[in-house]
Write a structure and sequence with these properties.
about 20% strand, 4 helices, flat, single chain, disordered N terminus, 15-stranded mixed beta sheet
């Protein structure tokens, strides 16, 4: 094959081409050109103006005439070079040296000896040693100025391959009728960049045993508009091929045999392998048949009737791991997956449902039971009307009346055997129960309760530690003390968790008081964070975040309460039959005269002394911001003028007169109070004393 090169960059300055005339060896990224003498030359695509030579940068410039150009070597530079960088090409502009950084692929010739240098991380001189290379010829332009670029592709000998690489397109116009690309090596590769276009030509390949046409990651398109492909197409290892294709068919083969065309036009036919020869055609089966595996068949499968013949069951009872009985019972997989269900004698058992391995596997005569889950109701024989759902739910229920509902992910009512009428719903709800008539709903609800009955625990861990009877705990963590042995208690509200051994207590409201009931009995606490004295009994506390401080006391509301409206006056029991040690009162005119009536306004309870400050204004209280560590002041009437007494002055009058007055009191914090209604008695006595004096004066 010959290549004709014409009209090559005629506009390049002739002096540049002339200086390259001695360059006969091609290198990376070079162009083939004609110089003004008509000789072919190679020229770098990064071709530079010629230089006067290659000099060491540490020496002064050999000359400094305008236009002088040098290649600098070394890493240290003489000051006259005007601070260049390593490998730069410098040019003197008449005043100073100006540098141009070198990049890979640059080529330059010298004026003094026709030497050529190229740059590849460093400047290298082109010598005969650089000729042992494989090249690629590519077109990089079009029209009158078209050029051919020769690119080195690797090392080798003069017999190396020449690869045509298309930048955009390569057109080869032969001088004769044919283009022949021949290679001596059997593993020669012919590569087309974006495709191989064969127009009005014949393309022949001598496909040898270890050669042929290889197409990777691309497409082979054949236009049959004006041509045809004749003969057979051999596919596979020695296959003889097929010359025609059956309509609506497929081609099949098994390696060394002939390719066969198989008709696939019949509806429902299936092409299937037989493990040895060519794939076989399996005809469509009859209506309602199913395709089932059968090792005795050549293809390993066959069409079979749905009932029997390997086609599967048409009723639930036809399944291996399901059993139904004439009395409406159904047992599914109680003997494990794929095994026949395991049950007891089923002599008179009716209306039972069991699903899961070992579920109701011992049942004999029990009725109306539902057991779903591994080991659910596994010990049940005669107990009836139980619902057991979940792993191990009701696993120990056996005999007795039954009527238990046990639902949970694990161990709900797991210890119940003969007990009745229990409801346990939730993980470990009522897990230890061995009594009857209990309700435990929620994670861990009533978990510790065993022998005590008639309890109701609803909520996460409600009554989790309860062991007493007839208790009610409703709400998250309600009555969840670790040890709660009391009886007849009611706790309603989130985290009402105070009870331990007390009896007959009622606590309603969210949260627990810091002094909530533990061992005390018969107490009532109603309200947010409201409680009573922990170990005392017979207390009533109603309001927001308040406490009583001892037995037999009532506290209604906190100190922010300003008004208490009722429709009738309080009636105090005063029957003689409930009194003892009756004596005349010593409190009279002297006591009344010792008292000082005053008027005052109330101080906001948040401003009280620390010793008597209500707990709601302390850390953890309802009127305290723990994050900000400060009191939250609530609305309070601090302007109304009130008539009354000073409790400390009342106590002083008592001490001075040596008398006791039941209307004065002090709580455990030392906060003093006065019962104004109790002043009626000394006032009556004082009036009587005044009447006596008036009468004496009148009679004098």
């Amino acid at each position: 094959m010959s290549i004709t090169i014409k009209n090559l960059h005629k506009d390049l300055p002739e002096d540049q081409l002339h200086e390259a005339k001695g360059f006969t060896t091609a290198s990376n990224n070079t162009y083939l050109k004609k110089n003004h003498e008509g000789s072919s030359e190679w020229l770098s695509e990064y071709w530079l103006q010629p230089v006067k030579g290659v000099v060491s940068g540490s020496s002064a410039p050999p000359s400094e005439s305008s236009g002088d150009r040098y290649i600098l070597t070394g890493s240290s530079f003489h000051s006259d070079w005007d601070s260049p960088s390593q490998h730069e090409i410098v040019e003197f502009n008449g005043t100073s040296w100006v540098g141009q950084a070198a990049v890979d692929g640059m080529r330059v010739v010298t004026l003094d000896g026709d030497s050529v240098y190229y740059f590849n991380t460093a400047w290298n001189q082109v010598t005969d040693a650089n000729t042992d290379t494989t090249y690629a010829i590519s077109a990089v332009d079009s029209g009158d100025d078209a050029i051919i670029r020769l690119t080195a592709g690797g090392s080798g000998s003069g017999t190396d391959d020449v690869t045509l690489v298309a930048g955009s397109n390569i057109t080869i116009t032969p001088s004769g009728d044919n283009i022949t690309i021949a290679a001596a090596d059997a593993d020669t590769t012919y590569s087309a960049g974006d495709g191989l276009d064969l127009s009005t030509t014949t393309f022949s390949i001598d496909a040898k045993a270890n050669g042929g046409l290889v197409i990777e990651s691309t497409e082979l398109a054949v236009d049959l508009g004006a041509s045809s492909i004749t003969g057979t197409l051999a596919v596979g290892d020695g296959g003889t091929g097929a010359t025609t294709l059956t309509a609506n068919g497929v081609l099949i083969g098994n390696g060394t045999s002939a390719i066969t065309s198989v008709d696939m036009s019949t509806k429902g036919h299936i092409l299937i392998g037989d493990g040895s020869g060519n794939p076989q055609m399996l005809a469509i089966g009859s209506d309602d048949q199913v395709l089932t595996a059968d090792s005795s068949e050549a293809t390993g499968v066959k069409w079979a009737d749905a009932s029997g013949g390997g086609g599967g069951a048409t009723t639930m009872n036809g399944l291996t791991d399901i059993t139904t009985t004439s009395d409406q019972s159904i047992f599914i997989m109680t003997g494990g997956h794929g095994n026949a269900p395991v049950t007891g004698t089923l002599s008179t058992a009716a209306d039972n449902i069991a699903i899961g391995n070992n579920a109701l596997d011992a049942i004999t005569s029990a009725d109306y039971n539902i057991a779903i889950g591994l080991d659910a109701g596994t010990a049940l024989t005669t107990s009836a009307m139980n619902v057991m759902i979940g792993r191990g739910a009701g696993a120990k229920v056996s005999t007795g009346t039954g009527r238990n509902v046990l639902i949970g992910g694990y161990d709900a009512g797991g210890e119940i055997t003969t007990e009745t009428d229990n409801v346990c719903i939730g993980y470990e709800a009522g897990a230890a129960l061995t009594s009857s008539n209990n309700v435990a709903i929620g994670y861990g609800a009533g978990k510790a309760n065993s022998t005590a009955g008639c309890n109701t625990f609803v909520g996460n861990n409600a009554g989790v530690g309860a062991t007493g009877q007839q208790n009610v705990a409703i709400g998250y963590l309600a009555a969840n003390s670790a040890s709660f042995s009391g009886n007849f208690n009611i706790a309603i509200g989130s985290q009402r968790q105070d009870f331990t051994s007390g009896t007959g207590n009622v606590e309603i409201g969210q949260g627990h008081s810091t002094t909530g009931t533990t061992t005390g009995s018969y107490n009532v606490a109603i309200g947010y964070l409201t409680g009573v004295s922990a170990a005392d009994s017979n207390q009533i506390a109603i309001g927001n975040d308040i406490d009583t401080d001892g037995a037999n006391k009532i506290r209604l509301g906190n100190a922010s309460i300003a008004t208490c409206n009722i429709q009738t006056d309080w009636t105090i029991d005063s029957d003689e039959r409930i009194k003892d040690n009756i004596q005349d009162s010593a409190l009279g005119l002297d006591f009344i005269n010792a008292l000082r009536p005053v008027t005052f306004t109330k101080k906001h309870p948040a401003d009280w002394d620390e010793a008597i400050l209500e707990k709601r204004y302390k850390s953890g209280g309802s009127q305290y911001d723990d994050d900000a560590d400060e009191i939250i002041r609530d609305e309070f009437d601090s302007t109304s003028v009130i008539d009354g007494l000073i409790a400390q002055e009342v106590k002083s009058a008592m001490d001075n007169l040596g008398v006791n007055f039941s209307g004065w009191s002090a709580d455990k914090k030392g906060k003093q109070g006065v019962q104004y209604a109790a002043l009626v008695v000394p006032l009556i006595k004082a009036v009587q004393e005044l009447s006596s004096k008036v009468e004496a004066l009148e009679n004098a």
